[in-house]
Every structure is written in C-alpha cells, then in structure tokens.
Structure of ABC transporter ATP-binding protein:
Amino acid sequence: MSDPASDPNVRETPAGKATGDRTDTLLQTDGLVKRFGGFTATDSVDFSVDEGELRCLIGPNGAGKSTLLKLIVGTLEPTAGHVYYDGQEITDMEPNERVQSGISMKFQVPSVYGELSVRENARLPVQQLADGAERRRRVDEAIENAGLAGYEDVQASTLSHGQQQQLEIGMAASLDPDLLLLDEPVAGLSVDERTEIAERIRRLNREEGIAFVVIEHDTDFVGEIADSVTVLHRGDVFREGSIEEIEDDPEVRRIYLGGEQ
Ligand SMILES: Nc1ncnc2c1ncn2[C@@H]1O[C@H](COP(=O)(O)OP(=O)(O)OP(=O)(O)O)[C@@H](O)[C@H]1O
C-alpha cells in the first residue's frame, strides 16, 4: 500500500487519517448515495468502522443495509459520495483490489460449491497465491476457522446449512482481511448453529484482530457479538450506539414495530 502522505493523488479521509496523525478509523463512508433508477437505496450515508471493531448493521427490510456493504466492497458503484479505507480513498477501486487491500465479504446468498469438497472450496479464495506453502497454510486455517477439521474430503452439499455458512466465513477470513463484511450470516440457522457462529466471529475478532460489519435482524444475536450498532432506516443512518442504547430507543422501536418503513 502506498504512503498516502506522499501521494498527491490520494485523497485523505475526512477524519484526517491519511496524514501522520493516524486515528484508528479503518473504514469511512462520506455522503454515500446509491440510486437505482429513481429509487434512492442509500441516501448520503456517513458510516465508519474502527480498527478491530465489531459493528452490527440493523434496520427494517429495504433500509439499504446490503446495498451499503456492496458499495463498501465495490460490487456496486455509488451514484455519489466517497469510501475511504485505511486512510485512502477507494471509491473507484475494483473489488479485487479492495480484497487485496484487506476488505473481504461473505454475501447473503451462499457461495459454497456443493459438488466440491470442503478442502476444494477452501482453496478457491487463495488459489492466486503463488507461494504453495502459504496457500496450504491458508486452506488449513480456513478449515480450522470454520470448525471443519476432519471434514476436509466431505462434499460441501452434505454439510448442514450452518456448517456451510461457517465454511464461507472461514474462506472469507482466509484472505487475511482487516475488515470482514457479513450479510446475515445466521439467517435460517438453529439456536445452536447461531451460537457457534457467534463464537467463531468473536474469536476471529479477538484473536486475529479482524474488524467486522455484520448485518443481522435478531437483536439477541447482535447483543451477543456487537461492540456497537448502526441502525439504517430509509437509506440513511438513523441511530448509532451500544445494543442497550439501541434497544431502549423508542424511535428505533417505532420504525421496527410501527410498521413504518
Ligand atoms: N439492483 C437493484 N435494483 C433496484 N432496486 C434495488 C436493487 N438492489 C436493491 N434495491 C432496492 O434498494 C432497497 C434497499 O435494498 P437492500 O437490499 O440494500 O435492503 P436491506 O436493508 O439489505 O434489506 P433486507 O433486510 O430485506 O435484506 C430495497 O428497496 C431494494 O428493493
């Protein structure tokens, strides 16, 4: 990564991180707008994540949560606004470059290949690595992080839905990210599977120092894992705070329970 302070083409973050006075802001969006035709999915979103922070993103259906993550990982282009990561503007950076810079994402739609084995799946994200020993280490680490040691040769389609989600999280983590974005990683899972994934996420956060943004609807799960919570509503940040502050906020209750979306 180039030194932003010496590169005149690199735009500094609004927080001024790109200079010598580093803050611990890892990701920041500034006025991020995404329109689909005449519909505004995200409306001037200012959102930030600190290094090593575990932030959950909640909000009613259609609030713009998935859209915001796709804008951060670069699979959608913003209509307006900026994205900064580790002190540099990445708004125009290709998704694969963002991955190399340390942003990884597990999408809402499962992307494990059922006809491949666990090990073959785990090889996919790291197949570009030239160093064979490093590649094998990352594959083993992905399987270990997914809690699937002993399942290496099992066909992925025979895994439970929870194990497949864990495999995907392990694969996303094997890219050695500083920021991992997870879109509803426990949707449709049993209580036990959710607990296991909560532990997995917490361990990656504490032991590997990976910062997370996790989209999740279930506030019990959010309470188990989150350092902080952002509520998105009608495409913009509505509230930010601890899970206790968010749960006690009557306006948040109103947008969830009042049927207003
Ligand atoms: N490719 C697209 N084309 C048109 N509209 C879209 C597109 N993607 C998303 N939208 C719309 O943008 C809005 C926000 O969608 P998004 O998926 O970001 O919401 P969300 O908060 O993640 O919702 P959910 O909790 O239901 O997954 C929705 O009204 C959705 O229909």
